[in-house]
Structure formats: structure tokens, C-alpha cells
Design goal:
Layout (H helix, E strand, L loop, with lengths): L1 H19 L1 H15 L4 H5 L8 H7 L5 H4 L2
Length: 71
């Protein structure tokens, strides 16, 4: 029980931080995904390694739909 309580207390705290500043939370998640995707096909194609700010991402990545991403 103590382990479950510890997990849910930490999770509830994280959710509270997300709710207090959702824009920052979303930016952090996007940044994490960009870093983790640098060596993927799309990451290399759009030079994720050069992306330092959210504005860089917006300029580097064109809007696409599923049809343009299909293999």
C-alpha cells in the first residue's frame, strides 16, 4: 500500500504542475520528443538536431496529413 500511495502522491503532484502551467508542460513534452527523435528518418530529414526552440520546430516542420506520411 505504501508503494502505491507514494506513486499516486507523486503523480498527483505532477498533474497539479501540468494544470498550473499547461503551456510549459506541453513545450517540455515537445522538446523531449524532438530530442528523442533526432536520429529517426523524420528527425534527420527535418534536422531535429538543429532545433533549439519551439519557433524553430514550427518553421522546420511543414504541416502534413496522414497521406503525406504514409510509406
Amino acid at each position: 500500500q505504501a508503494l502505491i500511495r507514494t506513486y499516486f502522491t507523486a503523480r498527483q503532484s505532477a498533474i497539479g504542475r501540468f494544470m498550473d502551467d499547461p503551456l510549459s508542460a506541453q513545450n517540455n513534452i515537445l522538446t523531449q520528443h524532438i530530442i528523442e527523435s533526432r536520429e529517426t528518418e523524420i528527425g534527420e530529414k527535418y534536422r531535429f538536431s538543429d532545433i533549439e526552440q519551439i519557433a524553430d520546430f514550427s518553421q522546420a516542420i511543414p504541416l502534413q496529413d496522414y497521406e503525406t506520411l504514409k510509406p
